[in-house]
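Thread: Solute-binding protein family 3/N-terminal domain-containing protein, structure

OP (GT): Posting the sequence first so everyone is looking at the same thing. Length is 226 residues per the record. Can we get the structure tokens written out before standup tomorrow? I want them in the notebook alongside the other entries.
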Amino acid sequence: MTQFHLIKPGTLTVGTYTGFAPVTWRDDDGTARGRDIDLLRAFADKWNLNIVFHFFPFKQLWQRPGNNEIDIAAGGITPLESRKTPGVVWSKPYYTVQRSLLIRATDREQYKTMSDFSGKKIVVTTGSTAQLDTEQRKPTNACIIYYDGNQAEIVSQLLDGTIDAFAEGDICSNYLATTCYPDQLAVTDLHPMNEPEHFVFAVREASGDHLLNALNTFIFDHCNDY
């Protein structure tokens, strides 16, 4: 069997984030869930590896493999130039998203683009591409609120009128609007970033080329299954 140079031999140690359902989240009993999680569980099974998950804030999650804390960081990470980190290599892309705003369904005629949010409150995940996009495009007097981790709490604030929008990738916004809160939420301001926004895994370089190559092969063969 190919020998991976893992932090703990025989165990794939993954760092992830709790607030990007359906990509990554944590259920009520503390178990890691999501598309990223399912893909990595299947990869670990293929190579007869144990797998453990640790939860971190999203901000600078991709740096943790380079700090030798984890073998892989997973959580809807886009390989921005500003995120290049010593000791970290990117996997091949496995998903592509667009930017979007999650709003109340009753506001879908009022809020159609970012320019409609003058004087309004928009929540973003700290350190995310949603933060970058919103900061670049928002009206001058729109208020950005930074949060980390609890989608349900933010949705509750959206529904009760405390905030006006939640900036997320379309995979998350569509999931919340159609699966979790049908008829209560809607998606607006759907648009791509200037560069296509691909999701990748951040891999500890010291874990070796064998791990990265095996993961890339698995992504190529199975990314559409999750």
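GT: Both are above now. Quick notes for whoever picks this up: The chain has a mean pLDDT of 96. The chain has five helices and 14 strands.
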